[in-house]
Amino acid sequence: MTTQPGPGAGWHADPDDGSEYEARTVRPYAVTGGRVRAANSDLPLEALVEVLPGAASSHGLPPEKRAILQHAAHTFVSVAELSALLRLPLGVVRVLVTDLSDAQYIRVHTSTPVSVHTGQSPALSLSVLESVLNGISAL
């Protein structure tokens, strides 16, 4: 049997053993309940996942969702890291993270720019941030 690189770890290209290949192609579909996109499909790769205090009692969750909670239990973990740790496609992890967030097991922190409210135009906000950066650099 020869193992060739494929779309994920454990994929085999042996024509005599099609069962493992089939299980791997069906699994992501089954994990997400047939959904290919999360409600929040623009969830960035670098979004950080934080487990909320009430998530310790995660009985009844599928193993993939429990694994996400375990990996993020002690530190913030990005969506991309979870995808690598779980060896699941990024789209699947996005769906699972969105589900856990909707069920209030986790909080997702995105890197959306924070607007510095100065009562002026957004360009002034950018200039204020540049001034702060220049001041820090001068130290």
How many runs of DSSP E, i.e. beta strands?
A: 3
Unreliable runs:
1-15, 17-24
Continuous helix count: 5
Main sheet specs: 3 strands, antiparallel
Q: What distance lies between the first and last C-alpha atoms, to the nearest angstrom?
A: 62 Å
Rg, nearest Å: 21 Å
Query: What is the residue-averaged pLDDT?
Result: 74
* Helix/strand order, N-terminal first: HEHEHHEH
| Order of the strands making up the biggest sheet | 2-1-3
Q: What is the helix fraction of residues, given as a range?
A: 40-55%
Strand content: 5-15%
What class do helices, strands and sheet pairing give?
mainly alpha
Write down the overall geometry: elongated
What topology does this entry show?
Blueprint: H1 18-31, E1 48-51, H2 63-71, E2 77-78, H3 79-86, H4 90-102, E3 106-109, H5 122-138
Antiparallel strand pairs: 1-2, 1-3
Helix pairs in contact: 3-4
Keywords summarizing the entry:
mainly alpha, 44% helix, elongated, 139 residues
Description of the structure:
The protein is mostly helical and 139 residues long. It has five helices and three strands. It has helices at residues 18-31, 63-71, 79-86, 90-102, 122-138; strands spanning 48-51, 77-78, 106-109. Helix 3 packs across helix 4 (90-102). The longest helix has 17 residues, at 122-138. The radius of gyration is 21 Å and the shape is elongated. It starts with 17 loop residues before the first helix and ends with a helix.
